[in-house]
Amino acid sequence: MAKSRLEDQLAALAALHTDPTSSETRAELRRALSQNALVARAAETAGEFLLGELEGELVQAFERLMVNPSKVDPGCLAKTAIVEALYRMEAYRPDTYLEGIGHVQMEPVWGGREDTAAKLRGLSALGLVRINYPNVMLQLAQLLADPVADARIAAARAIGYSGLEAGVPLLRYKALIGDSHPQVVCECFTALLKLDAEPALAFVAGFLQHDERAIQEAAAVALGESHQVQAFPFLEAAWEDAVDGEMRKTLLVAIALLRQERALDFLISLMLEGGNRGAEALSALSMYQSDERIWERIERSLRECGQTL
What we know:
Elements: H1 3-15, H2 23-33, H3 39-48, H4 55-65, H5 69-72, H6 77-88, H7 94-101, E1 106-109, E2 112-115, H8 118-130, H9 136-143, H10 149-162, H11 167-177, H12 182-195, H13 197-205, H14 213-225, H15 232-241, H16 245-257, H17 261-273, H18 275-285, H19 292-304
Antiparallel strand pairs: 1-2
Helix pairs in contact: 2-3, 3-6, 4-6, 6-8, 7-8, 8-9, 8-10, 9-10, 10-12, 11-12, 12-13, 12-14, 14-16, 15-16, 16-18, 17-18
């Protein structure tokens, strides 16, 4: 396909957004899904506008692209767009998701070869969870040991999304053995606090004393984003014990992320003390500038003490 013609066709697909649900648009998308070079853009449009009537064509395109995949779909972009569209449509396509979660696509890059299908595996994992696929945890356990960090991150997120208690031991084990990419462990913490809530608090808080700074920070942020008031004493104690200035700032941000009255009272009180600690507390509280109620409370507290921002 000549480059200029391909560019024209891609531009035509982009223009379909003006009337995405018309019969003409659906017909054009069906034609595009039959052409390998246009599949990714067509699938993105179908997924964006939840055009479930194109589900069959999406699956057919996926199967076609699984034959000699690195040649017909370099970068795994089209297959990934298809699975994302099916996921957004909540399509019940276990066979497609199973193919996707197991697909590895090695392609040449400068200095070697690279697997381009990690995102596809992650989206397929979410698809299996969404359709309540039986024994999905077996698939997610394998993905949690994937060679590519992005796939492991997606696995942890999918386990948290599943809501299944069977995922708790997997997440704890992964957190304990660690990972070369701290973000994987961070996602395990976040998923644990969704699945196991209160019991997971002490477990995650234990990593605030980890030898690796990135893991300490991951634990702090996960506890803050849990919004659990019971997380506050763990973060406060870690802040009091911290000797590293940057870690103390991170812990204050985590306390602010809790969005709990007890946490806000602590930060405002610390802010009013002034000095470096007060400045760090104010910096953590700055995330609330768009929250009119809380920011007014902060300004009022300063005014009452004869201070201004």
